[in-house]
Amino acid sequence: MLTRQTTEVPSTPNIPKVEPFYELELKYGLYVANYGKAAFARNFCKLALDAEKSGWDGFFLWDSVSGEDKGLPTVDAFSALSAMAVNTNRIRLGTSVTPLGRLRPWKVARETATIDHLSNGRFTLGVGLGFPPDQEFERFGEDPNDRVRAGKLDEALEILVGLWSGKPFEYKGRYFTVKPTRFLPPSKQRPRIPIWVGGSWPIKAPFRRAARWDGVIPLKHTEGLPFLQPTDLTRVLDYVNERRTNNGQFDAAIIGWTSGKNRRRDRAKVEAYGSAGSTWWLETLYTSRNSQEKMLTRIRRGPPD
Questions:
Q1: Residue 212, Cβ density class (10 Å: 0-12 exposed, 13-18 middle, ≥19 buried)
Q2: How far apart are CA 137 and CA 144, in angstroms?
Q3: Which of 64, 153, 268, 273: CA 20 to 30 A from 259?
Q4: pTM
Q5: What DSSP state is assigned to residue 76?
Q6: Span 81-109, pLDDT tens digits
Q7: How far is it, in rounded angstroms, from Cα 117 to Cα 189?
């Protein structure tokens, strides 16, 4: 689940700039809560298959363990995505986002590599601090401190990359230790599974982290619906681009809402984000989370392209 983050860490040193990365084709995905009355793996398999048939390019599940404490059914995101992987052929699958600080990275490495193989290389791992910390961390005996969660997140990412490689690997950090080991098979995607980092603008720390990886899922640090405006996205990408050290593909996934009815208005809204640098539009079905039929209705209307 992607929500507001409140962590700040020291600025990174000056690094060489790279060419902008704003020229990728815009794709269309769905952003779906992993809790609600319809939150069962079989239901998500049906939704993902309908999404594929209706022209969507991706399906991204929240990764909440508590379902925001709403007393609703909650499905394990990785288990559901495994089932969705064998029930689809084309769409990209992923999390948005997984709070790595509450998980053991070696277990995550096994689970995500398995999904990557089941999907034949269609998996993306979205990561973040996780929110709210009292529900997602403290109640289960995990430290909810922002800096601790950020430190665990960064160490876990390094461990994932090392284990996904399939090469001999060891690690000694403040929070995690891995003695010499080798995980096989390596991830299906090479050099590794893409990693997108979630964060809330204008808090800078998550975007410095995102610059080291493969993509960003930005929200806005505000009350209410935390959606960025195109001008905000331009600032986000300029900030990230100044800190990028390679010219590899970098995705910017914008979460938003369209009607599915007024195609001209929907296209104009999405195209404004595309012009600002978005490579993915993630249509949120959060407001329909309690009704599978409402989600199916929006899915079958297709993406706003």
A1: middle
A2: 5
A3: 64
A4: 0.90
A5: -
A6: 999 999 999 999 999 999 999 999 999 99
A7: 8
